[in-house]
Amino acid sequence: MILGMDLQGVSVTSGSACTSGSLQPSHVLMAMGHDEATSRASIRFSMGIWTTEDDIKDAVQALREVVKIANCESRIAAGGL
Q1: 5 closest CA partner among 48, 52, 69, 51
Q2: Active site members
Q3: Which position among 9, 12, 22, 50 has the lowest Cβ density within 10 Å, counted as fewest Cβ atoms?
């Protein structure tokens, strides 16, 4: 997902800045009660004062495309296509 989003021109991360590069699941998501698999599978979007509504719409559209591609690849890998 992270690579796919990058290819779409949207920067996301798999965890907080303080755990950058860590292979451990997000301690914040774990503390919120999420299981390890969900915590490892999460991605983080950051926004700032200069983030526009169009930026958010573009990121949502990019995520839709990446998920669509990932779903197709999963079906192909499973022999479904």
Answers
A1: 69
A2: 18
A3: 50
Mean pLDDT on 50-69 = 96
Q: Are 14 and 42 in contact (CB under 8 A)?
A: yes
Can you name the residues that pair with 44 across neighbouring β-strands?
Answer: 13
Task: Supply 39's token pair.
Answer: 């915590």
> Which residue reads 């995520």 in tokens?
63
Enumerate long-range contacts of 50-54, CB under 8 Å, 24 or more apart: none
Using a 10 angstrom Cβ sphere, with 0-12 exposed, 13-18 middle and 19 or more buried, the burial of residue 8 is middle
Helix (H, G, I), strand (E, B) or coil at 73: helix
Phi/psi zone of residue 21: left (φ > 0), alpha (ψ -120 to 50 degrees), beta? left
pLDDT digits (tens, 9 = 90+) for 18-41: 666 777 888 888 899 999 988 888
pTM for this predicted structure: 0.76
